[in-house]
Amino acid sequence: MEHFDAIIIGFGKGGKTLALDLAARGEKVAMVERSADMYGGTCINIACIPTKALIHRAKIAEYLSLKTFGEKAAFYRRAIQEKNAITADLRQKNFNKLNAYPNVEIYTGLGAFLSSHQVEVTTEKNRFVIEGDRIFIDTGAESIIPPIRGIRESRRVYTSSSLMELEELPERLVIIGSGYIGLEFASMFAGFGSKVVVLENKPTFLQQEDPIVADTVKRVLEKKGIEFRLNAEVDSITDTDEESVVGYRQVVDQTEHSLFADAILVATGRLAATESLNPGAAGVRTDAQGRILVDEYLQTTAPHIRAMGDVKGGAQFTYISLDDYRIVRDHLYGPGIRNTRDREPIVYSVYIDPPLSRIGMTEQQAIAQGYEVMSKTIPVETIPRARVMGNTDGILKSVVDTRTGKILGCTMFCLDSHEVINTVALAMKAQMSYLFLRDQIYTHPSMSESFNDLFSF
Fold first, then answer.
1. Is this structure's pTM higher than 0.85?
2. Residue 331 is among the residues annotated as catalytic for this protein
3. At what angle do helices 69-99 and 48-64 cross, to 10 degrees?
4. Terminus of the chain with fewer CB atoms < 10 Å: N or C?
5. Domains of the chain and CATH, by start
6. What are phi and psi for residue 171, nearest 5 degrees?
7. Rounded to an integer, what distance in angstroms lies between the CA atom of residue 203 and that of residue 220?
8. Exactly one of 56, 304, 331, 444 is catalytic; which is it?
9. What is the pLDDT of residues 146-204, one digit of tens each?
10. Using only C-alpha atoms, what is the Rg of the chain?
């Protein structure tokens, strides 16, 4: 049985960065990844990088104003090939970077705990056991497949991962779920030229966002031809030779309806990938959803085992996994003061067109927590940069504590929001007054100069 200073299960952002760090310090490291198609983790293979590559190309498709569906399908096919080239290149570079260390062993196989220090690895050819002083779990998350009749038997049902492997543009795409993943794919495929219908079983669209923002997002996406059907409970999926039939009923009146689709995307959430990990054998506890329980220092219920990234639940972003690595590094080699509370509030972006970005609380959330707030909303069409770029869709909203002047939250649904929101994040992290953003001198014309108006009360 080979012994290692550290075993890392999962080649995700936190795991691979930690592996490089430990290897550079001279530690003997084992990296266990169940698939050669996932070297580098979720982000570069099936999430952030491929989706954003396709979203960018979908925008180009809109600019080209392709006339026929055949032209749109041909452009989409090339976009998929370009996406595949990007991910293959990044995957190989991630493998090579780690494999260059002589004290690192990469095992391509399924890792499962036998005990608190032993991991069984099952590869295509054999099965063996390795042992580690410390073990780090970074196995990520996987798509939830809801219990809908016919969903597992259908040839036209896809997850967010498998849909990006489809080389033929679906003329009719039905998306089950209107969360952030569902919306990104809806915006993307509408840009490529698919007719998109989104089914949501809840009565409220984007209920976690400010109502005025949610309404604006829905209106902008509908303008792109995306159709939303709320209160729609999917009952069945049935394949025919030429198409699939999605049966659903309206929750309010229980009437039954059908939709015809060339492809169906299931976007009903992601679940921690722990089913095959056998964490209980190592004394690692999970919750009812399979998420690994950790403290604020990412330690599991087995002190020498830590978990990073999506597998522990919480915000599922690659930059959170990277920050998890920083917390682990601090506790292994630093003063040991970093913890998961340090990074609040967390900024996020949804890459629809235009992107939706938010940090902190909505006005409703702030009031519910007892704050006395002042807020301001401005339409994007008033921002010179948006006018220059010909993208005036969207809305901005700020929320400020009346008593202290501290920024409680900011939502930006506009061109370049995924970049500009980071300025707000820095101001909030530094505990600056809203006046800091209001009175700053910005380049012109730029989206960031909107803060002069957005934080002017």
1. yes
2. no
3. 150
4. N
5. 2-143+271-343 (3.50.50.60), 157-268 (3.50.50.60), 348-454 (3.30.390.30)
6. -70, -35
7. 19
8. 444
9. 999 999 999 999 999 999 999 999 999 999 999 999 999 999 999 999 999 999 999 99
10. 23
